From TrEMBL:
One of its GO terms (cellular component) is endoplasmic reticulum chaperone complex. The lineage of its organism: Eukaryota, Metazoa, Chordata, Cephalochordata, Leptocardii. Residues 1-29 form the signal peptide. This is Marginal zone B- and B1-cell-specific protein-like. Residues 176-196 are annotated as: Disordered. Pfam families: DUF3456. GO terms for biological process: regulation of B cell proliferation. Keywords: Signal. The keyword Heme does not apply. Transmembrane segments: none annotated. Coiled coil: none annotated. Residues 80-179 form the DUF3456 domain.
């Protein structure tokens, strides 16, 4: 019976020793390392971003790229099922489907000190951060989508899709596009804070 008591006493002491050793090791590691933390907050939204019905100029490049992505994605799905070119009515229906579709996956996010749109089709989607979506963003993207279709025409856009030029390059990066270096605008978060 005495041997059993000694073993249990040793087990308790052994567990206490391991816990003390673990605690001191963790405390020492915390002192030696500067443990960082990540803080996420939504972007500060100004009145233009929250109230205007139109896409702010500094977000038009991202918006154009989103729209070109959605056009391309939908056209690839539709034409994959077809063995011949789309008819005029199929082309019109396809572009209308894109513009009338959901834009709820998109919003504004602060990325590397810049205000950017984020969502499928943009590299900003994978950047950690808080995206402020909803509100007027879906309406603005839908409006821009219909403007591109109205300005360029469904058949012209379909022709570009079938050509070697991408819709993103045609709509966004050519000399009149919002992503062309002469036209591209950005808005740094720091500049906006200075304006206040």
């Amino acid at each position: 019976m005495a041997a059993t008591v000694d073993c249990s006493a040793l087990s308790v002491l052994h567990v206490l020793f391991v816990l003390v050793l673990l605690f001191t090791t963790c405390a020492r590691a915390q002192k030696e390392q500067k443990l960082g933390s990540i803080k996420f907050s939504g972007p500060d939204v100004n009145s233009e971003e929250s109230e205007s019905l139109h896409m702010p100029d500094y977000l038009k490049c991202d918006a154009c790229r989103i729209i070109a992505y959605k056009f391309t994605e939908t056209l690839e799905k539709v034409t994959k099922k077809k063995t011949k070119a789309l008819s005029e009515s199929e082309i019109i229906d396809t572009f209308e489907e894109v513009c009338e579709g959901s834009w709820d996956d998109y919003g504004i996010k602060e990325v590397d000190g810049l205000k950017r749109l984020s969502g499928p089709g943009l590299e900003t989607k994978d950047v950690p951060g808080v995206m402020q979506g909803g509100g007027k963003w879906p309406f603005r993207l839908k409006e821009m989508c219909f403007n591109y279709v109205g300005n360029e025409g469904e058949e012209e856009l379909y022709g570009i899709f079938k050509s070697k030029m991408t819709l993103e390059k045609f709509l966004c990066k050519e000399k009149n596009g919002p992503c062309h270096p002469k036209n591209k605008k950005v808005k740094k978060v720091e500049e906006e804070k200075e304006e206040l």
